């Protein structure tokens, strides 16, 4: 029954260069089902700049803003094994309060460490073949460290594994024509209309926001330049796309 409840409602999320920046659940989604789906998506996230170089970085997922350590484990044929480790004691912004009273955000613990009686860690092994996840295995451990001899401390360990069973590739022969039509039609939009179209593109179709990001550099008018500038300043896009946009914008007519 629990699995049926989870599969009942579809959710949308935005995935780019290994980062999940947006999640758009159904308005009727239950909180517990949404949290499970967020946990699954968190295990998929990988913000490594290079797979062959270990990396320490801050990453936002279901646990908050956490210090994450990525390490290259091994290679088997064309499959890369990467390990993603998170110490939950490093996480900030884990709580959310909704109130009609204006409040000032305040982080009450140190950025890199806060004391807690629980020693909690999450470790995931990601198997990637040709930039496609083949499997993700995670182990989450919570240990109560009130005892001097921590080997006898009570602990809870949960394990999960997701495996790719079927890979489905959809071919859309009409996409180039539709994309060109979008570019030519959008050139007649005002700045206000272009901004509204970009903000609502994710609601139009599942990949609408991605298509808009692909189209903006080719529209080449004042409205698209304004939207691209706003998106760059909001740090919504990846560093690679930002550099590509800035290079293209340098050749725009002034």
From TrEMBL:
Keywords: Disulfide bond, Glycoprotein, Signal, Storage protein. SUPFAM superfamilies: Lipovitellin-phosvitin complex, beta-sheet shell regions, Lipovitellin-phosvitin complex, superhelical domain. It comes from Rhodnius prolixus. PROSITE patterns: VITELLOGENIN. PANTHER family: VITELLOGENIN 1-RELATED, VITELLOGENIN-RELATED. One of its GO terms (molecular function) is lipid transporter activity. It comes from the Eukaryota. The keyword Metal-binding does not apply. This is Vitellogenin domain-containing protein. It holds the Pfam family Vitellogenin_N.
């Amino acid at each position: 029954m629990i699995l049926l409840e989870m599969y009942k409602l579809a959710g949308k999320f935005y995935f780019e260069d290994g980062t999940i920046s947006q999640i758009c659940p159904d308005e009727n989604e239950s909180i517990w089902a949404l949290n499970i789906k967020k946990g699954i998506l968190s295990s998929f996230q990988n913000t490594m700049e290079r797979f062959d170089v270990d990396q320490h970085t801050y990453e936002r997922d279901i646990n908050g803003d956490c210090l994450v350590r990525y390490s290259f484990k091994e290679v088997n044929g064309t499959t890369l094994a990467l390990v993603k480790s998170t110490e939950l004691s490093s996480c900030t912004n884990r709580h959310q309060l909704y109130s009609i009273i204006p409040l000032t955000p305040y982080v009450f613990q140190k950025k890199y460490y806060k004391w807690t009686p629980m020693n909690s860690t999450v470790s995931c092994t990601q198997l990637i073949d040709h930039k496609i996840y083949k499997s993700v295995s995670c182990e989450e451990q919570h240990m109560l460290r009130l005892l001097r001899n921590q080997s006898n401390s009570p602990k809870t360990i949960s394990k999960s594994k997701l495996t790719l069973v079927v890979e489905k590739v959809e071919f859309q022969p009409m996409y180039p024509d539709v994309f060109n039509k979008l570019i030519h039609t959008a050139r007649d939009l005002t700045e206000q209309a272009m901004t509204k179209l970009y903000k609502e593109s994710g609601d139009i179709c599942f990949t609408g926001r991605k298509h808009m990001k692909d189209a903006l550099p080719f529209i080449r008018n004042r409205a698209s330049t304004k939207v691209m500038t706003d998106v760059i300043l909001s740090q919504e896009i990846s560093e690679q796309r930002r550099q590509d946009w800035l290079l293209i914008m340098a050749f725009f007519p002034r």
